[in-house]
Amino acid sequence: MKKLVLMAGLIALGTTASFAQSAYRFGVKAGLNVSNITGSDSRDQDTRLSFNGGLVAELPISDKFSFQPEVIYSAQGSTIAAIDEDNFLDIDENIEYQLDYIQVPLLAKIYLVDGLSLQAGPSINFLVNEEVDYQPVSNGGDVNIVDGANTFELGTAAGLEYQFDSGFFIQGRYTRGFTRIYDNVNAYNYAVQAGVGYVF
Which residues are in the Outer membrane protein beta-barrel domain (predicted)? Predict the structure, then answer.
């Protein structure tokens, strides 16, 4: 699994050699995730507030168009109301179902005006952590799940970014999984991501 994640990251960032012109740039980004699970088999649940962060590369093709591969750690999943009528566990108000991925978006980046761009493309995602946390606002409460969700997800990502002349940028994005979280279960990931970053 680790080899697959590493290979995907190298492919995404390694395309610099074949696509990049003299103005290619690398950077970092970080931000917030508001994620949930959708589908006819998903139970009534609330969003999970978490984080994302990683590396970006911009490879210009023309003045208005670039290829932007990324390697991002994205903490996703959902939140459900806690029920512990027998008081067997010290449970917080809510319980988090945590699905954390290494996402490799391969995005077309189209500049609408100077600094403002539209980004969209496929995303190859690898599950790196699955657990239930019944104490999400404190330490402890983590229950790891083994052989649960599918370890591979094919999805999409789309959003807007504004990049200042300094290299600092702000970004908003929607991500959606096309493949099911579990086999034979109609449930899919989605998240709204907001963040900031800097390209060198």
Answer: 19-182
**In this structure, which amino acid lies at residue 93?**
E
Q: In this structure, are residues 95 and 84 in contact, taking their beta carbons and an 8 Å threshold? A: no
Say whether pLDDT at 103 is over 50.
yes
DSSP 153-179: EEEEEEEEEEE-TTSEEEEEEEEEE-S
- Measure the CA–CA gap between 193 and 50, rounded to whole angstroms: 10
Chain centroid, CA 145 distance in Å: 20
Residue 184 tokens read as: 């034979």
Per-residue confidence (pLDDT) for residue 42, from 0 to 100:
84
Res 10: pLDDT: 56
Strand pairing class (94-113; 116-133): antiparallel
Mean pLDDT, rounded, for 122-144? 90
Let me know: does 129 contact 149? Beta carbons within 8 Å.
Answer: no
**What is the pLDDT, as a whole number, of residue 92?**
66
The residue type at 67: F
Predicted confidence (pLDDT) at residue 11 exceeds the cutoff of 90: no
Where are the chain's structural domains?
Answer: 2-199
**Alpha-carbon separation of residue 153 from 102, 187, 199 (angstroms):** 10, 12, 28
Q: What CATH number belongs to 2-199?
A: 2.40.160.20
